Amino acid sequence: MGGRADEIVLWPLGGIAFVQPPARPGAVLWSIAAGPLVNAVLLPVTIGAYIVAHAQGLQETNPDADHFLHAIAAINLILLLFNMLPIYPLDGGQILQALLWFVIGQATSLMVVSIIGMVGVVAFIGLAIYQEEWWLGVIAAFTAFRCWAGFQQARVLARLEQPPRHRDAACPSCEAHPLKGPFWQCEQCGARFDTFTHQAECPGCGKQFPTTACPECQRAHPIWAWYDTDEKSARAEWEEPEQR
Ligand SMILES: [Zn+2]
Ligand SMILES: [Zn+2]
């Protein structure tokens, strides 16, 4: 799965490309960094054009053109600085998320930048009231909406990142599905195995364990108690494709 910009939302300060995250943070980083990089490349061009024209005396010969070049350079600089604020979903916030992704994973990094973004929303609202600028309020509302969506997406991702579990078995006490993997060790021969694929019988020495302790709540139950004994509902679960 590669990154693709599938939605461009126009708002007062230009376009922001929302990129569907591919599995790797490096690819995300490049797809997001493209926008600010263009602004950064344009920066010396626009400022240089203004300085050269100004030195040639454009202010006297054509004050409108001089003013225009100044405005272009200023807008580009402001856009670059604004976009680099580490507030999700601004480019700076998305770059921060991609960088954090390397360290703490996709779900947690999205969670972190969504919360930082909410702090940014509060700052935008305060600034909007203080400056009496309606467009700052629009940005605050837009940022809040995107951060909330990011927060919800992070929760879904966190659930998907969790290790696989035995969906067919559940603890009779706390109803937690046990993790898939060799997390149980035989006290007799030391073999590590998944007791739910071996029905509480050690594959090393054949010892049958009378009870299996729940890793979540520590209470022990016989292995059969972990399974739905109602044959009808068990069959219904089997025939119904597992849904996420
Ligand atoms: Zn339990
Ligand atoms: Zn054993």
Task: Explain what you see.
A hairpin with a 6-residue loop joins β3 (184-185) and β4. The protein folds into two domains: 4-161, no CATH class; 184-239, no CATH class. The chain has helices at 25-55, 58-61, 63-83, 91-104, 106-131, 134-161, 231-239; strands spanning 4-11, 14-20, 184-185, 192-193, 212-213, 220-221. It has a two-stranded antiparallel ribbon. Strands 3-4 form a two-stranded antiparallel sheet. α1 (25-55) packs antiparallel against α3 (63-83) and α5 packs antiparallel against α6 (134-161). The model is unreliable at 1-22 and 238-244 (pLDDT under 50). The protein is built from seven helices and six strands; from the N terminus they run ββααααααββββα. It is mostly helical. Residues 171, 173-174, 176, 214, 216-217, 219 line the site of one zinc ion.
